[in-house]
Amino acid sequence: MSTRRCILFALVALGTSLAPNLHAQEAWPKRPVRMVIASPGGSGPDVLLRVMTERVSQALKQPVVVDNRPGANGHLATIEVAKAPADGYTVLFASAAGTVVNQALQPDLALNVLAKFTPVAQIGAGGIHLVTSPDFPATNLQEFIAYVKANPGKLNYASWGVGSTGHLVMESLKNQYKLDVRHVPYKSVPQIYQDMGGGIIKVAFVDATSSLPLIKNGKLKALGNTGTARGPALPELATFTEQGVKFAADGWYGVFVPKGTPDAVVSRLHREFLKVMMDPAMKERLLQFNMAHPPLKSPEEFGKTVAADLLLWQSIVKTNGIRIE
């Protein structure tokens, strides 16, 4: 057999062997896709995800089914997806708190995010709010720091639990400015609002969505936003960085798949979620959550964001000796 005919037969054989794999990738998805989320049904993240999956389902021509797996600070959901086959039919929708913050706090328990998952798409970005009661004698972050320094050991602050982002941010401030202020962990943000309304506690870190109506109607006073940009629904509230305080970190939601998922599937999922993100109606929805609409990132760029945020939270946890008992 001539060399030319040998090469021809080899190419035909190679094409035949590759055809099933190429066809399988092109045909994805052949059945419903499951989106696992750590938040309970009816919560803000759940509502946001369902708006997106409705449109992604139409594009994929297959149902995208939301599977709520709350519990263990997001650990149950991440474990569920990490153990799933890397075939694109089980996808994780998770927050920064449920991934990188959780890993920083519990390195022995939480999953290594970048080792177990491939980042697909970042959804939104935003900080949290430092708020006080209306009668608190400070109107901005620098005045707050000055007041705490002048009154060491006299002030308590609330967050929605030990290891919450609010707790970590205040511990970072305490370390930077040598502040003496005590942490009072609550089980939920609504409980914080109730006690602030009753005068039981004067200062708290709360999320940037549920606090909006209370700030706008004067029941709470907002001193600063921890994000890298001002919240679009409250643009008059300056960030910590703008007020001269060295802290800037965004919370975000992200789409992840198990490590090893075919590149073609990652690209398709990324493309469909980006289409949803570019829709004006979706931008309006993020505005309702007081989340910025950051520049759209590739999976690789989102992966760099995840890695950088993990280093930030690990540094805060280590520097301040924060432990989850």
CA-CA gap between termini: 73 Å
Radius of gyration: 23 Å
Unreliable stretches = 1-25
Strand element count: 10
Mean pLDDT, to the nearest integer, reads 90
Shape assignment = globular
**In percent, how helical is the residue content?**
40-55%
Task: Give the topology string: H per helix, E per strand.
Answer: HEHEHEHHEEHEHEHEHEEHHH
What's the arrangement of secondary structure elements?
Layout: H1 3-27, E1 33-37, H2 44-60, E2 64-68, H3 75-82, E3 90-95, H4 97-105, H5 113-116, E4 117-126, E5 129-132, H6 141-150, E6 155-159, H7 165-177, E7 181-185, H8 189-197, E8 203-206, H9 212-216, E9 221-225, E10 251-258, H10 263-277, H11 280-288, H12 299-320
Parallel strand pairs: 1-2, 1-3, 6-7, 6-8
Antiparallel strand pairs: 3-10, 4-10, 5-8, 5-9
